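User: I want to check something. If I give you two sequences, will you return the structure for each one separately, not as a complex?

Assistant: Yes, each is folded on its own. Here is the first sequence with its structure:
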Amino acid sequence: MTGLLKGEARILPLSRTAASALRTLAITSEGLEALFDRFGDGPFRDAFERLVQQIYRLRGRVIVTGMGKSGIIGRKLTATLTSTGTPSMFLHPAEAGHGDLGMITDKDLVLMITLSGESAELAPIITYCKRFGIPTAAITSRGQSMAGRAADVLLNLPAVREACPIQLTPTTSTMLQLVLGDALAMALVDLRGFSADDFYKFHPNGRLGAQLLKVQDLMSTGADVPKVRRDATLLDATTEMTRARFGGTAVVDADDRLVGAFTDGDLRRTITGGGNMGARVGAWMTPNPIEIAPNELASEALRRMQANSVTMMFVVEAGYLLGVIHMHDTLRAGIA
């Protein structure tokens, strides 16, 4: 991407605003490359790994703190940690010295995010943590700053150019804070073996939650599942389809194993093919219908239904019929 921003894109006529945008992207990209290279530095990598392990073994929470734009990045990191299995809370430095220091317990770790490392509001937090032996970590661009020297674990960011033309507005530096925070959170996700099921526990609502619903969460079961035996008549199958209103019925053997399906489309083909309502459904059913396991994602069920141009699927485990899921079930759940 850097090559495109620095080279090829500049052969095109650009407006002043487009050129400014590309310059911002190019400088940010350089900053990300510098952060990537920083992981080749043994002390930095060791500090990162030590912090990950310390948070992993933590019995309390990660208390994230930072002023201004660093604080905004800290709030985002807090949300990411909390939603991926690491209890976390944001502490506003300006409120800390007015009673909110009581939020910090001796089981917690305080993570300071600060560009300069000299924010005066951090001083009471550092003093409190030192007094009560609470571990601290700092993400800062100035390792010799107040926060950098006080931290038990220091993640010293590389010195980078800001994208701001007057080099005052934090831009590249806050991007590095954001990316390093994400790297920290994802390392913990990997270390914990955090799964899609775990993610769903914290995201039951909204589109993310819908994408993680399982077939078993949406399928119909019991008497709501249309099914007939192989030796049932076409009239029996039609009656069962009409009762259940799924547009089809499962065909099962004596042990309730799925052996076929009979749908509205099969009924039309039967009538046009010369079949009569007294014929056995086994002769006109679709053998080996598409099926899905109950623990698969409902989004996968929707994908298979769309790929096979059907509106329903039978839910099967070890060959046995457990339920049925309809496309409308997935749409109502907000999966599409």
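And separately, the second sequence with its own structure:
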Amino acid sequence: MNEIAHPPATLPVAPPVKGGLSPLNRRRLANFRGNRLGFWSFVVFLVLFGLSLFAEFIANDKPIVVSYKGEILFPVLVDYPDEKFGGFYARPDYRSAETRKEIADNGWAMWPPIPYSYDTIINGLPTPSPSPPTWMLTEDQCRPVAERTGGTGCRDIEWNWLGTDNTARDVLARIIYGFRISVLFGLILAAISSVIGVIAGAVQGYFGGWVDLALQRFIEVWSAIPTLYLIIIISAFIAPGFFVLLGILLLFSWVALVGVVRAEFLRARNFEYVRAARALGLSNVRIMSRHLLPNAMVATLTFLPFILNGSISTLTSLDFLGFGLPPGSASLGELLAQGKDNIQAPWLGLTGFIVVAVMLSLLIFAGEAVRDAFDPRKTFA
């Protein structure tokens, strides 16, 4: 009796992963977007940070593009000698009347929206510095300055939208550059300290025993060292700068994540899949990096926005106290210090406070959205 031939059974094929994301990550992304306040705070922060990366094209005392005697020049990117424009100085002053007239007679120039850099000293202000925002001035105050260029009032002079500080520098330009420095400093400090903290916590939690005990005692002693006093002592011998401050703060900021990662590794090191990996002969490094670290990264990513927030706050505090970036640098903390020293110029303190408050609030809201995205109660619901 012949048997009836049946077609071979086919296994169900898993649907393709949309956009390269796993179903778990898609649920996390949906939870992140579900927190509307956090999601839009993250978008606004990215837009502001992205704009600040092109600060030289937004606020600068050099033209973006110059057409001079048939040649296209890019002063915003290249430092041309002053002799190229008929002068005899080492560097041309593009804001001077002579250089402007020379360029206008032989071509044209396209300026940034804000014709000042963070360190541009503005001459001929309508009022003594710190000068209030131009929109707060009266026509009588603007008229003497406007008449020098053939104008009649405030609309005919260069505007300082947020006023100037006590050394006649544009506040808006300094905010744009200061925002970029603060965020870049915070990102670098948070990234490097997180890597060191994750490695230290992983070693403690995975090996345990005397390794865990020794590192715990070391961290307790190390974290008890007063960072501010150390910076004050070092600043007496070395001029504090971006990388000097980064190195000093990096010595202590890495301990923030050690406890979280250590707890994750202590919890998971005796799980069945870890024992199976050991039985298969996998090395400790491979087990830690391929099997245990992904679980610990959930807690790490949740803490990262708050670590970034703390890094920015630390730099702002040091600049406010005078132990941060060198004098003259674009700094939000220095703007707050000027506001404290110049009570008669409230736009300095208010501007610095609003910018710092908005920046840190955006990071806090974004951090809460990240926490919701990785919350197991919402991800596996």
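Because they were folded independently, the notes below concern the second chain alone. Strands lie at 65-68, 71-73, 107-110. The chain has a mean pLDDT of 86.
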